[in-house]
Design a protein that fits this description.
By secondary structure, this protein is mostly helical. Helix content is 80%, strand content 0%.
């Protein structure tokens, strides 16, 4: 159950951080205005809280692993929100990052 909770929290964190950054991007770069920017800042702030809910107590481990989720999630967000089509190197890189997430977070450790 802890594994599923951890994965769900990583996915929620990615949604908030990537979505928040995208909202700020839309507000500034696409000239959609202050409401988009404010919504993005709120989502980015919420991301910071979600990361604290991970069952593992090590900040460095959580954020290092989340980096891999962020890479893969950013490519997926670009596909859905902006019509981006990753090439095979994007996909391979994302898979390597997710393997890193699995090793960092879920490898058996003698505790």
């Amino acid at each position: 159950m802890l594994l599923l909770r951890s994965i769900a929290l990583f996915l929620l964190a990615a949604l908030l951080e990537i979505g928040g950054a995208w909202l700020v991007w839309q507000g500034v770069r696409e000239h959609r205005g202050l409401p988009w920017i404010i919504a993005g800042i709120a989502a980015l702030g919420a991301y910071g809280f979600v990361a604290t809910l991970q069952p593992d107590a090590h900040f460095g481990r959580i954020l290092a692993a989340y980096g891999g989720v962020f890479v893969a999630g950013s490519l997926a967000w670009g596909m859905v929100a902006d019509g981006f089509r990753p090439d095979r190197y994007d996909v391979a890189g994302a898979l390597v990052c997710l393997l890193g997430v699995a090793l960092i977070m879920y490898a058996p450790r003698g505790r």
